[in-house]
Model the fold of this input.
Amino acid sequence: MKHKNRIFFFLGVLFLLFSTNSYAQTQVRNLTCEYLTNPLAIDVLEPRLSWQLAGNERGIEQTAYQVIVASSKEKLNDNEGDLWNSGKVESDQSINVVYDGVDLKSKMDCFWKVKVWSNKGESIWSEPANWSIGLLFYNEWWGRWIGFDRPFPWDDDSFHSRLSARYLRKEFEVTKPIKQAKVYLMGLGLYELYFNGQKIGDQVLAPVPTDYDENVKYNVFDVTEQLKSGDNAVGVILGNGRYYTMRQHYKPYKIKNFGFPKLMFHMEIEYEDGTKAYVLSNDSWKGTAEGPILSNNEYDGEEYDARKEMPGWNKVGFDDEGWLKPEYVQVPNGTFEAQMTPNMKVMESIKPVSVSKIGEDRYILDLGQNIAGWMKMTVQGNAGDTVQLRFAEVLQDNGELFTANLRDAKATDIYILKGGEKETWEPRFVYHGFQFVEITGYPGVPTVDDFVGQVVYDKMETTGTFETSNSIINQVFKNAYWGIRGNYKGMPVDCPQRNERQPWLGDRSTGCYGESFIFGNEMLYSKWLDDIGYSQKENGAISDVVPNFWRYYSDNMTWPGTYLMVADMLHRQYADVRPIKEHYQSMKKWMDYMKDRYMNEDYIVTQDRYGDWCAPPVTIEAGRGKSADKKHPRELISTAYYYYYLGLMEKFALLSGNGSDVAEFQALAQHIKDGFNRKFYLTEKAGYGENILTDNLLALQMGLVPEENHEAVFNTIVDIILNRNNGHLSTGLIGTQWLMRTLTANGRADIAYQLATNTTYPSWGYMIENGATAIWELWNGNTAAPHMNSYNHVMMLGDLIIWDYEHLAGIKSSTEDSGFKEIVMKPEFVEGLDFVNASYQSVYGEISSEWQKDRSTIEWKLTVPANTKAKVYIPAKSAADITESGVELYQANGVNYLYQEGDRALLEVGSGEYYFQFKR
Ligand code: BGC
Done:
């Protein structure tokens, strides 16, 4: 027995030795280049490389790194960094290390790996990663733009345009063993690519929309696997997207139309023997507009006649005798750029909740959730049977679709059966915002098993989870999640259902920041920032809608100013300083433009357009049946924002090497602050402007209130909410962006909590009580005039999601550093909440915070990623009142008590998991 025990003891020690060894080792993983995993085409010549460290010990800090970049996998394997070998660099930087090797050229494939040294030891080399450079120069596109720059007789290019999809095909021969084959393509407005009958990639509605007069994004695919020796066929379907716009000959001064669908295709086949072959778009292709997609219009829907399918059209041997020779068509004006934000994809499929009959041959399908996407349908019947699907977000009282809020968007898909076997269909070039579908003409009785709801949005990671003990907060978060994903369409749009769907800047100024906790949206918003830059006029003006499919240069402060706020978000959340550097001069130009034109001698900015857009009517009755489409421009808003933006510009100047501008910004800011107080402060009321909630929130949170009036103004805010508003908010798109944080920063998280959990009008909870499964455009969305109440519009989220993460969960990036290199963990353990569980995938890795209360104790488990630190604020009178993993604080490994700050003990911890307990 004893002997056996000794063996076990010996084995145990061995196991421990081995396991501690491997645990001790720091690992490197999640390598990204320009925030992308193994991108196939970037056009950045100094790409930034990032990685994450991981390990089971606490307090892991990187002390050095080495990056090797090679021109082939083999060289990388042999540690031969022929493109770059950084050598061992003493540094804690693991995010955005700038490539500093051999000059990068078009089409280059770069393979890389990294190893790190940390205070816990040396890692092994990471798994290899790669990136490739796209086509950097216009003249490297050897194909020609092809298509048909005209409607066909069956097309209708009047107001509700109906244009058939264009099909293009080409056969070619592969003569030798292939090393690699890559396709570079621009298919406008939207494309689908096939090789030998097989669709390439999982993207839908590609490429991302841009202002095609400024730039066109190209996509790249590695098709080595899809080609075979001998004959091959490539096929491309072109849809309209925003290129051939949804409304023709309508307000041309406002709505841009770019032209007819077109293709530029460039394929390079590299044979194993080193020779190359090319397949290029030119008039050796064949094309037709007589395929099954009769019409595709983002607002109106898609019409598909399966009888017109052309079996094998994208395969070898298809008889294309009757097809036309494509024409050389007008070249888009914009520059050609690699698309570095993901395309859309079907991200989730959901089963309908019910299908019920509402009339002769008419059924209503309920998805149970307001989504943006489309329905996939299975059907069996006779050739020529026609199924019509009409989409809507809500139903009328009589059970019929409510479509008044879609304005003139027809939102109708039509499928004509080919007959015989079961047919499965989903549209290609449209999407809808809906929960309900009216089905007409379905042969037989449709059931929930015949339909699938396809949820379509940009292929990005869900980075955040969030749950509390309060069901209203949870449901609002869930609605926000649905709303945000539904409105990511290669650009953030306002809504996915009506005849609008425009990327309005004002809706996302603070929204983008909250959204970034839930979705890895850095590439989307970097792309949008570039779009905003492109929209700038020579004189400095920026559009309210970008890409400016609708031209609105209204010169208000708040919508275009989103330019600065998105750049600030990218820096704060993702440690990305490059957008600030690249856009600094344009931002300054816009600030100057607004100052020169609209700032008067009292330092008041006189121009505004939307005011506190969609602020709630005082009562539901007051707003019943009324349009919310009223503008109340306010000088207070534009002046406060100018002041706020100057603060951002000051920060940007320092970050972008323009420090010499700072003094000018500061001096102007001081004048504005004085002018603002002179003009708007109401001494006897201790408030500003009209002494409404938004006015006071802006003044206080933007730092315009002199110290001595701070408390009094905050008391006014509290008074407005608790007494005048009977415990409710009264803010629109502008005020709501500052609401929750102002209350919390001034010690009244309890009121913020009350607003977050209200269910009476106006509140987020009121929407839920009235059936919302996303976020409404209007606080009174159920009773206002229909033409402007979308049921999926994220602008009213304000700063709620930021508050959920930063103040309820306590996950916040410090302003001292960015991108969560230093994390501030200071949850509000508000009365009424028993627990919060939240996690966030930061650029450094996962941060989590889980706390729960009972009558006497709070337990708080938190995770801090490697190579970061967290400041942890615990409500306790001294360190003696806190334990960590059951031991007193001074014994706890990796926990450093700093000092008391107010009623909180401030601790500092390095990476790892911690488990704190303290008395309430
Ligand atoms: C849009 C809003 C937008 C507003 C500005 C509305 O029609 O849906 O989201 O910000 O117009 O005027």
User: Anything to note?
Assistant: Residues 494-495, 500, 504, 506-507, 610, 613, 795 surround beta-D-glucopyranose (CB under 6 Å).
